[in-house]
Prior knowledge:
The complex is a heterotrimer of chains A (312), B (210) and C (264). Chain A is of the alpha/beta class and 312 residues long. Chain A folds into two domains: 45-145 and 251-310, 3-Layer(aba) Sandwich (D-Maltodextrin-Binding Protein, domain 2); 148-242, Osmoprotection protein (prox), domain 2 (D-Maltodextrin-Binding Protein, domain 2, 3-Layer(aba) Sandwich). Chain A has 15 helices and ten strands. Chain A has helices spanning 2-5, 14-34, 54-70, 84-92, 103-110, 119-134, 154-160, 181-185, 190-197, 210-218, 232-236, 260-265, 267-274, 282-293, 299-310; strands at residues 45-51, 74-81, 98-102, 136-138, 148-153, 177-179, 206-207, 224-228, 239-242, 254-259. In chain A, the strands form three sheets. A five-stranded mixed sheet of chain A has the order 7-6-8-5-9. With 210 residues, chain B is an all-alpha fold. Chain B has helices at 3-9, 11-43, 47-62, 65-72, 83-107, 111-119, 124-154, 167-176, 179-209. Chain C contains 13 helices and ten strands. Chain C has helices spanning 4-9, 56-63, 86-91, 108-112, 114-118, 123-136, 141-144, 154-166, 184-201, 212-218, 236-241, 245-258, 260-263; strands spanning 15-25, 31-41, 45-49, 71-76, 79-80, 93-97, 172-176, 204-209, 221-226, 229-234. Chain C has a six-stranded mixed sheet with strand order 6-7-8-3-9-10, sandwiched between helices. Chain C has a four-stranded antiparallel sheet with strand order 2-1-4-5, with helices on one face. In chain C, α9 (184-201) links the parallel β7 and β8 (204-209). The radius of gyration of chain C is 18 Å and the shape is globular. Chains in contact: A-B, B-C. The interface between B and C is medium-sized, with 19 and 25 residues.
Amino acid sequence: xxxxxxxxxxxxxxxxxxxxxxxxxxxxxxxxxxxxxxxxxxxxxxxxxxxxxxxxxxxxxxxxxxxxxxxxxxxxxxxxxxxxxxxxxxxxxxxxxxxxxxxxxxxxxxxxxxxxxxxxxxxxxxxxxxxxxxxxxxxxxxxxxxxxxxxxxxxxxxxxxxxxxxxxxxxxxxxxxxxxxxxxxxxxxxxxxxxxxxxxxxxxxxxxxxxxxxxxxxxxxxxxxxxxxxxxxxxxxxxxxxxxxxxxxxxxxxxxxxxxxxxxxxxxxxxxxxxxxxxxxxxxxxxxxxxxxxxxxxxxxxxxxxxxxxxx
Amino acid sequence: xxxxxxxxxxxxxxxxxxxxxxxxxxxxxxxxxxxxxxxxxxxxxxxxxxxxxxxxxxxxxxxxxxxxxxxxxxxxxxxxxxxxxxxxxxxxxxxxxxxxxxxxxxxxxxxxxxxxxxxxxxxxxxxxxxxxxxxxxxxxxxxxxxxxxxxxxxxxxxxxxxxxxxxxxxxxxxxxxxxxxxxxxxxxxxxxxxxxxxxxxxxxxxxxxx
Amino acid sequence: xxxxxxxxxxxxxxxxxxxxxxxxxxxxxxxxxxxxxxxxxxxxxxxxxxxxxxxxxxxxxxxxxxxxxxxxxxxxxxxxxxxxxxxxxxxxxxxxxxxxxxxxxxxxxxxxxxxxxxxxxxxxxxxxxxxxxxxxxxxxxxxxxxxxxxxxxxxxxxxxxxxxxxxxxxxxxxxxxxxxxxxxxxxxxxxxxxxxxxxxxxxxxxxxxxxxxxxxxxxxxxxxxxxxxxxxxxxxxxxxxxxxxxxxxxxxxxxxxxxxxxxx
Lengths: 312, 210, 264
């Protein structure tokens, strides 16, 4: 998931990034061309967008239901847009009114800033810049952080009393690690991580495809893996996410991005979304993702149940 | 910087990964041949069993490699994480063309030749080694050629299970959104496939001329 | 288990190859050969004559045990072959088939040397024997030994087939329409040569054909088969004189082609 969420944060990617942006702009034209709600739509319609993976679709649905429940507005869902760049361009151009984003992604992929570790500093910086440059409001975080997650088997966590990443320092030397290519290569990934926590493993990490990591962990082929903190399978397989107690990983807090003009015209949207602030934990997001991915359920149903349970 | 410069600057790793890649292909092809040839031979005169086995090999062919890796991780001895799983999966994929061409190659030998060989007092083993296999060799080799070229392509997926090979560049490049890195894996893999195909083709022709 | 030599030794007296009540049924139930009793002596050429599907080829395959009889037995020198090793038996029985079945990946020389090689003769003896055989069938070894079957005419291929069958000097020779696929001129030539060869070599020969003219020309005796049953065994003259309806039908076909008078 975070593969989509956090792209292009290394300087040497600048060229690539330019190309990506060109493609993204072109794609926006296409989106715009085929959109029914073209241009500055007025009146009582709100368009909610999302990127093209489960968590984004669930969050967009949550925003949509929330607005429908707390206002008389009609909500159009324009989900599955192909990535950060397309959502950003669509938002700025007014093709969509809001979409869920992650603060770290906004900072590195959209604003081209280097990664930072302090969540509130990142949030403030993103909020300021978006307001000034794009006329977009960054609403307060929903509560969960979708970042790299170091995951161990639940039984090991229990037996060895593991809660934080620091706790594994003494066990790591006889552990085998399994990591994805992204974790190995990214500047905020493996190299910096072992340095920050002074870790050493029994052998070089096994480098696996993300989808196979959890399987290898469950089958005891490896003892620790790096996934994404909101991956649904973590809960399903009874695994435990270790806390990043030294705040090594940059924050990727989920936030709603909404057009300023939309909020001015319909203040009830801000009110409706404010009810969600700080209300979704990583654990809950994992369960929502699992219900859709693992349970093959309709995101709308999953969100409806979640909203009634949480009394939003 | 284009992909070629990238290739030049990382030539030692590209070379090492190419060797690793060929190693994976060679090991899996070896296993596929060790299983496929005897099995194909055993199936030549058992039509019912042949249908079942070829059907099974066909189904294996359609399993996506990531799913196959997933199935193989918990299997003791042959599974796990690393080269063994990748080799087993690649061998399974190579089995179908080898099996099929073994069966059709041997079944395609002139029945009169077989009748004469039996009638002259050749044992089944002599018939197989001195008559059926040499005459089926061009078809057999065509199957091996197809299987090898496919293997070189499919072996890039071995990087998903930590087995190395040129797929490492492809996975790395995808993770970093860097086309140069992807091409540093994809282009050598394509070149390997072309070179191996051409040389096996030349070998096949020289065999046919004899 | 008797070797080729033993087999040869046993062929000295009386009838050497006999079938007794030989019957072959397919698993599905159709009977291809039914209660066939025949005997062939040394130096004799017994022609099995019949239309397609009369069981001629099946009978040959029962003799060299490419097929196993459902009932009845085959005797060589009075001993049943059922208990013999079929591989060893076949090496003592020369076999020539219509499509020659030469190994396309081997030279003429290697093809002819097949059975001696299987019998582990010394390479010197094999080489001498191959030269002898090629000369016997009229193919100059210097010219033909190194050729491959694809470089031979149909007649030449069949000559190699005969040389291959005779190479290990088997006492019994089975021939399944060996000349049927050849053009008439070549066929006549090979038939003529075969006749003199058969007289000279003193083999026990079973020769299958559907060509009554060939049967009369080559057979010392003719066994007429119809739908798996033996109609009767005749000398060529007896065959021409017989009033048996099946025999009459064959003789009539001969008459239609070239006239009975000429043949007589």
